[in-house]
Amino acid sequence: MSIDINDHLVLLCGKSAAGKSASLRKIRNPEGVLYLNCESGKRLPFRSGFIEKTVTDPLQIEEAFIWAESQPHVHTIIVDSLTYLMDMYESLYVLPSTNTMKAWGEFSQYFKRLMQTHVAKSTKKVVFTAHTLDSLNEGEMVMETKVPVKGSLKNNGIESYFSCVIAAKKMKVKELGTYGSSLLNIEPEESALGYKYVFQTKLTKETVNERLRGPMGLFSTEETFIDNDIQQVFDRLDEYYGTGTAAA
After folding, report:
1. Angle 75-16-53 (CA atoms, 0-180°, nearest 5)?
2. Which of 141, 206, 217, 246 has its C-alpha lying 20 to 30 A from 43's C-alpha?
């Protein structure tokens, strides 16, 4: 029996205006990117060249994954964002239901079906963006940064379904001084402004209560902070798993 594993499954999370959408701008062969917009058709902050589709019903996401498998030219699927997608499901299918207990169960099953069936079997690179929220963990009395989700999914957390979880952040340039690699390039304009949009790939002592994760050795300590460029993440996953392709 074969086991389906997607080696390019990334959760890109972060606060609002942290550079999540902008980080998609350098994806190679953009005409092969299926971009699923769950945020009321909000425009990307750049001219993309993507196949852009506005999602108005969560079930369209499943249809999109099925369609993409029949399209050889599609190499990447982006769902922007998972937070708005699940809010959409709640608004359309949970709140109007006369049996909310059953509806919340279907809410959880929808996400599990999406991840365990469509995403796991996908032959495409898959990226979900998501918004994070700081909240108090009353059991440990610490503030946690995580992707908020309702229903029974809250128990395990959305992040547990992803093999690679990175965070988009806006940081002061001086805070990046102890990190240096070929994946972190501070431009003159960024130096002048004093801040830079980055990805955080690994935990630090200041961020131990965030839910970042990845395969062991995917990024080095020097690569804890890198340019906010999702193509660099794809390239590293290609290198790590030995699955590089000329198409993407």
Report:
1. 35
2. 246
